[in-house]
Amino acid sequence: MGTPSPQAVLVLAALAGLCAPPAAQGKPNFIVILADDLGWGDLGANWVETKDTPNLDELAAEGTRFVDFHSAASTCSPSRASLLTGRLGVRNGVTHNFAVTSVGGLPLNETTLAEVLRAAGYSTAAIGKWHLGHHGHHHPSFRGFDYYFGIPYSHDMGCTDTPGYNVPPCPPCPRHGTAASPTSKDCYTDVALPLFENLAIVQQPVNLSSLTERYAEAAAHFIQRASDSGRPFFLYLALAHMHVPLEVTPPPGRGIYGAALREMDALVGRIKLLADRRGKGSTLLWFTGDNGPWAQKCELAGRLGPLVGAWQRTQGGSPAKQTTWEGGHRVPALAYWPGRIPAKRTSSAMLSTVDIFPTLVALAEATLPPNRRFDGLDVSPVLFGQSDVGHKILLHPNSGAAGKDGEIEALRLAQYKAFYTTGGAKACDGSIGPEERHQPPLIFNLDRDIQEQEPLDVASREYQAVLPAISRAYAQALEDIATDNVSVADYSKDPAATPCCSAQHVACRCQAPASPAAPLDRGTQRRAARLCL
């Protein structure tokens, strides 16, 4: 059977709206906005030194701000996989990042949030960064999303004609002959960064200068189509901001990072306006980040605020992205739903991105997938201000700085944070903190030491009182994982899996013109008919 054209995919989505279940009527819309490499201190509502987020600060004032909210991992692919499955990488199989040449992705036996919501009558779209596999059926068009517009992985994983600001800087894509010699091993020069619309590459290389505007337009068109169809919608908007390269033109007197942060903030403001125009009170907007700032990018990295990981800094390296220190996984989080979520509220409940899956499933009156366990909780009582109790225990998987990727060697129990392994990621000065094993574990009391500066004295009464509870919680968590139905991701690589618009041109360079919607062929019509059954 042939692959349907991008136009046919859009028409199928529209036809599916005509036969949406009656139960879908009256259900809330969901917008999840995921920022990339955003620091906890990058929001003015969190950190007074930040002055570049007026729209996000307004969102916080009109909704609820969560100050103890965590990404499920502190690097890209595992964090995103956990958000879309409600399960940590040790369960869903995604323990580290996928590559440009990756054959696999999020295991196909894992059920995504989009698949659950679409089955419940929702129109679904993913706009932005995917990074959960682009080859074959790992592409988002096969993972529950009616519509996809974005880049298949991080936007530094391919050259562009508008390379923007990076540390170190990378050259633009070559136009003729052989690829340019990279200035850094972190620069991609052989293949240009592709932009997908559904299954088709519509631009390669991506024009980063216009990407923000194109995301906003795609979101507006999707929301309008969903509104016209009468179906509730789920929009997963995974931003390029604040990952490098930063493609902005800073005004006089303003730094590059601040200008990019303000651009991201303006985009969020536009999405909020779209949601309000759809009907205030009908849409839950949830904003958060995939992990903390990428410290090795120096002045192009975000602000940690108070999450400085002081103990690790004395050992060397960064306590931010890729680590299990608070700066790596404690992220900004805001929830906005007029009439349902209280305004001007700050919650200290311990929550995580894994909670988004079960919470939205519950609000959609859908059912969680069977035969597996979830790390996330339905936290709707916290959203609605009826409770301020989240997780009692939160697990923090290794994410590249130390230990085996995905394994659980740090956890929270109430205000206590325990480390069985520590290590620092690459810092701005090039230092990397050594991997250290701790038995018994290092334990910090975050209520009085959010900077993670001074671990409890092993001989102290406090340490001796909390250690047995931490040890039990850790053992029970590992046992729960060991007895679960876990998946294994395929991390094999093949150059043939590289997205390439035209292999005849250097760096796969091409730019496909927009085309009008094509009529449905008979095979597509039959598939559309099956959607209505």
From TrEMBL:
Keywords: Calcium, Disulfide bond, Glycoprotein, Hydrolase, Lysosome, Metal-binding, Signal. Residues 28-365 form the Sulfatase N-terminal domain. Its cofactor is Ca(2+). GO terms for molecular function: arylsulfatase activity; metal ion binding; N-sulfoglucosamine-3-sulfatase activity. One of its GO terms (cellular component) is lysosome. Its EC number is 3.1.6.1, 3.1.6.15. InterPro entries: Alkaline_phosphatase_core_sf (IPR017850), Sulfatase (IPR050738), Sulfatase_CS (IPR024607), Sulfatase_N (IPR000917). Residues 1-26 form the signal peptide. It is found in: Lysosome. Pfam families: Sulfatase, Sulfatase_C. Belongs to the sulfatase family. This is Arylsulfatase G. It comes from Anseranas semipalmata.
